[in-house]
Amino acid sequence: MSSMSLESFLIIIAGGFVTGILGALFGIGGGLFLIPFLVILFHIPMHTAIATSLVAIIATSSAAASVYVERRQTNIRLGMILEITTTIGAILGGITANMISGLLLKKFFAVIIMIMGFIMLHRSRKRGERQTELVPGARLNGKYLDGATGKIVEYSVRRIPMGMGISFIAGNISGLLGVGGGVIKVPAMNLFCGVPMKAATATSNFMIGVTAVASAFIYYAHGHIEPLVTSAAVIGVLIGSLLGTRIGYRITNKVITGLFALVMLLIALRMFF
Question: Do residues 50 and 222 make contact, with C-beta atoms less than 8 angstroms apart?
């Protein structure tokens, strides 16, 4: 796409804006929205759409992560640990692609996140705010100020090996399907590792940029990045990300959990059918 009308440029900015809000609020990157948006509406080649999404994820991570780190919502140590297995999983994604049918993998992935979405939705409706727990002698503790309640939230990270294993799967699926691993890592940190949703989404935002950078260089080397499309998407993403961090600061963990669960269910239905 060597040339673009002003109307198309503004529409892509709007799409990036929505992507930025979703990415910053839920820590999922937003590629599941931006890629079909570009392909269906503008008939942009898939490789170019994925490349644009990767650069947009880097922008989301850069904008949102800086805010979350300043608020101390990001568990940097946990993010660095999980990123190791996520990256290994992404590298091995190509090997897995030759062993499993892509259609079967998509359906399996959809069923997994649908189950996790139902669990999160049930817990958010039945229990309200999930209680955090401090474990004596735990290696990874976290603490942040919740802007919605005005209270200090303290927690200990549990089941780190399980979190690393799930992050490996998330990286593997991310490499296979071109989707953000945050849609798996965020509920995994929340459901299995005891990390509150705000800290989980903040930590995911910190992680997704690292993974996206490695892939973006590959797409750039193959000439798949279109400057006009990418710049429009990044402008929208940066604005949306800043708004997403403001929204996330003012709503409760219960609301974020419920909204995230609904997003997961919609993604699962779309991928399955």
Answer: no
